[in-house]
Amino acid sequence: QVQLQESGPGLVKPSQTLSLTCDVSGASFTTNYWSWIRQPPGKALEWMGAIYGDTTYYSPSLKSRTSISRDTSKNQFTLQLSSVTPEDTAVYYCKLVQSGLPYWGQGTQVTVSS
């Protein structure tokens, strides 16, 4: 059974770096598509970036501030977003596509505020 669980600080101050972790069980890291997606309040889902195989992809609008990586020894998938502003306040999700099927974490709320 595939399970994903996001974790990280619920509150981050402006200009700091947001770091989130997605703990994964029941899935293969090396053959699947892993992504981070967020949803700001009252707005649509926004794709932030993904890892597929050995290649990492980023949203052009976030590329300069985003870093996505994975640690197969820990079964973790991570997101770092630097220089955050209140506009980065959102629910952040990790998502896996395995054998054509999507799996989502439950999401974690991140608020950027001083």
Instruction: Please identify the structural class as seen in this structure.
Output: mainly beta
Mean pLDDT, to the nearest integer, reads 93
Distance between the termini: 40 Å
Percent in helix: under 10%
Strand content is over 45%
Total of DSSP H or I helical runs spanning 4+ residues: 0
Counted beta strands: 11
Order of helices and strands: EEEEEEEEEEE
Poorly predicted parts: none
- Give the biggest beta sheet: 7 strands, mixed
Provide tags for this entry.
114 residues; mainly beta; seven-stranded mixed beta sheet; four-stranded antiparallel beta sheet; 11 strands
What do you see in this structure?
- The structure is a single chain.
- This protein has 114 residues and is mainly beta.
- It has no helices and eleven strands.
- The protein has strands spanning 3-7, 11-12, 18-25, 33-39, 46-52, 55-58, 66-71, 76-81, 90-98, 101-104, 108-112.
- The strands form two sheets. Strands 2, 4, 5, 6, 9, 10 and 11 form a seven-stranded mixed β-sheet that branches. Strands 1-3-8-7 form a four-stranded antiparallel β-sheet, with no helix packed on it.
- A hairpin with a 2-residue loop joins strand 5 (46-52) and strand 6 (55-58).
- It is globular, with a radius of gyration of 13 Å.
- The N and C termini lie far apart (40 Å).
- The model has no long low-confidence stretch (mean pLDDT 93).
